[in-house]
Amino acid sequence: MTRDETDIREVIASWARAAEAGDYEAVFSLIAADGVMLVAGLPAFRSRAEYRAFVLGAVKPGRQFKATFDIREIAVFGDWAHVWTRERSEIVREPGTPVVRASGDSLNVLRRLPGGGWCIALAANMMALEV
User: Fold this and answer.
1) Structural domain range at position 44
2) Which site among 28, 79, 110, 128 is 20 to 30 Å from 121 CA-CA?
3) Rounded distance, CA 39 to CA 123, Å?
4) Rounded to whole angstroms, how far apart are CA atoms 112 and 121?
5) Residue 83's pLDDT band (cuts 50, 70, 90)
6) Residue 6: predicted pLDDT
7) For residue 35, what is the domain's CATH number?
8) pLDDT at 60 over 90
């Protein structure tokens, strides 16, 4: 495994840890300022700021989130990379409500940051609710 692949795996792991901890600012820090977030059933979020406003408006106190990511493919092309993952999430939207489960594939395009490291330039999340 190359250094780039290891670093990209850490971006995905950092996203999962921060989301589970409710540290949304850490999640947002992994997205490029001009990053595009595509979420099935919603209009495109065309910047980190748009996505941040949506998430912070939707998150309820006491919300719980847990996700597992199965990385299927990482390919690096110079300062760009793509990551294909299979994700499964469990969400408790409000205390006392049932767990909502979703799963599906995601395709992320990452861009190398000046000085090293990676950020998410585009994320296409194709998860669907499990019935």
Assistant:
1) 3-129
2) 128
3) 8
4) 9
5) very high
6) 98
7) 3.10.450.50
8) no
Q: How buried is residue 74: exposed, middle or buried, by Cβ count under 10 Å (0-12/13-18/19+)?
A: buried
- This prediction has a pTM of 0.92
Evaluate whether 69 touches 85 at the Cβ level (below 8 Å).
Answer: yes
Q: Give the total number of structural domains in the chain.
A: 1
- Residue tagged 């019935």 (tokens): 131
Residue that wins the pLDDT comparison between 56 and 122 = 122
Residue 88 contacts residue 103 (beta carbons within 8 Å): yes
CA distance 119 to 113: 7
- Dmax (CA) for the chain in angstroms is 47
3-class DSSP assignment, residue 67: strand
